[in-house]
Amino acid sequence: MSVKDKIILITGASDGIGKTVALEFAKKGAKLILLGSNGSKLSAVYDQLSGVEKDYHLSLECDLSLLNDKSAIEIEAAILEHYGRLDGIIHNAATLKKMTPLIDLETNLWEKILKVNLTSEFIITKTLLNLIVKEENGRVIFTSSNVATQPKAFWGAYAVSKFAVKGMAELFRQELENIHQIKIFNFDPGPSPTSMREIAFPNEDKETLKSLEKLIPCYEWFFSEESNTTNQHYFKFSDFKI
Ligand code: NAP
């Protein structure tokens, strides 16, 4: 089970879970394309990455709320120029913004959240798919949440987006896994100590949550040959005996 030399795009790599996956995967020899909207946070992560050669990794500053077909093609071009190929995507970036009743959620925030959490993943997946299907064990990993399966008041457009991502991941799976050697997974990392979690649970003691590093074996398994034969496609952290 190794991610060594795998070329993986991680969205939301500047913070939280995506940052930890980036730092740990880099230690294991993966070549990473880090994507986030905050350039200085992204540079700070880039500077911490292990990588023996100059330009081993690639950093792409991109606000996913503004992504369109053209900018996705520019991302593809940057990956092609830097690496010439791509093994997979971890669609990890997401925004919650705030907890609020739906009737109080501003329409512009609704649109922004759906753009970042859902539409950008659709655009990036369809644009980069041609690269991923050329690889032997191509992967697209979507990120879920318990609010994708159990509606919860006040989770707003974030919950709606995660419901929709669950459906979209399933459609991609049905349409692609039969004709390409690719696996499409959707993973709910469970309660994890990040800035997003703090918005939802400001008074929670972070010490009661698992460390972000505990998620790494899950992501490694998704990219392993071992996961080629599984029929399961929706996973929760608790499915892994960690
Ligand atoms: P986080 O710490 O808030 O990090 C979110 C990441 O998404 C950041 O790197 C942020 O980068 C990026 N992002 C947000 N808006 C963006 C935009 N407009 N354009 C580009 N990147 C953007 O969140 P997290 O808790 O690690 O969450 C990671 C994933 O896990 C999410 O999909 C979340 O839904 C899921 N999840 C988390 C938990 C939990 O308990 N933490 C539980 C279940 C599921 P910038 O700041 O650079 O924009």
Q: Approximately how much beta-strand content do the residues carry?
A: 5-15%
Return the CATH architecture: 3-Layer(aba) Sandwich
Shape: globular
Q: What level of helicity do the residues show?
A: 25-40%
Number of domains: 1
Reading off the top of the CATH hierarchy, the class is best stated as: Alpha Beta
Radius of gyration: 17 Å
SSE string, helices as H and strands as E: EHEHEHEHEHEHHE
- Would you tell me the structural class of the helices and strands? alpha/beta
Number of helices: 7
Strand runs, count: 7
Largest sheet: 7 strands, parallel
The pLDDT mean sits at 96
> Which segments are poorly predicted (pLDDT under 50) over 5 or more consecutive residues?
none
Q: What ligand molecules are bound, each kind once?
A: NADP nicotinamide-adenine-dinucleotide phosphate
Look up the CATH topology.
Rossmann fold
Q: Which strand order does the major sheet show?
A: 3-2-1-4-5-6-7
CATH homologous superfamily grouping: NAD(P)-binding Rossmann-like Domain
Q: State the end-to-end distance.
A: 16 Å
Notes on the structure:
The protein has 242 residues and is α/β, with parallel strands linked by helices. It has one domain: 3-Layer(aba) Sandwich (Rossmann fold), CATH 3.40.50. Helices cover 40% and strands 14% of the residues. It contains seven helices and seven strands. The chain has helices at residues 16-27, 39-48, 69-82, 107-132, 156-176, 195-200, 216-222; strands at residues 7-11, 31-36, 58-61, 88-90, 138-143, 182-188, 234-236. The chain has a seven-stranded parallel β-sheet, with helices on both faces. The protein starts with 6 loop residues before the first strand and ends in a 6-residue tail after the last strand. NADP nicotinamide-adenine-dinucleotide phosphate (NAP) binds next to α1, α2 and α6.
